[in-house]
Hints:
By secondary structure, the protein is an all-alpha fold.
Amino acid sequence: MNYRGGLYHKTQILMAYNTNRIEGSQLSEDQTRSIFETNTLFSEQDQAVNIDDIIETQNHFQLFDFMLKNAEELLSSNLIKQFHKQLKRGTSDARKSWFKVGDYKLLPNEVGGHETTAPDDVDSAMEHLLSKYLAKVTITIEDIVDFHAKFEAIHPFQDGNGRVGRLIMFKECLKYNIMPFIIDTQHQAFYYRGLQEYQAGREKGYLIDTCLSAQDQYEAICKKLLPPISK
């Protein structure tokens, strides 16, 4: 319904603030709220604000709306690339000739000191990941987390993989009638450790439990802000 102070309003701010903060944005939650509510930004104690932080925050608000409109669509490479294009358009990265906004990476990259899928292999790796995921008869939260861990291991884009990946999880939860969740800064260390353990093939439960904990938090927000269901 997009009314002020409702679940949509709260989710937009929490999602944009936390997912960008995890990736290094210096904007505070109050600054993120100000951008969303008033399209203005106030400085905190002569803080120097990175323009890309502002652009990517605004882009994320629009990306979230785009995700909601396409929540029922089957996940595809084209849709994932559109997510990336929405997130990174207008940034300084978009002006770099080697940075492909809305397309898979051209240069190798690492995450947490670990190599990711080589650029020449990204297309096939993503198609393989998507085909196995979409072939499932039913989708559970464990399947969504599994897709996320493998998506982040591929790291298909030059930058923005974490934010796109976490939004994909939110979308897929909506599509399959699963309570969605937001990985916030309080869960950040557990989330990164969970990804490392999962991708190394040692322990899947750490990442799954982190997502379930975040799910409990978001469910509490939903119960507080959603209007009661008429009987």
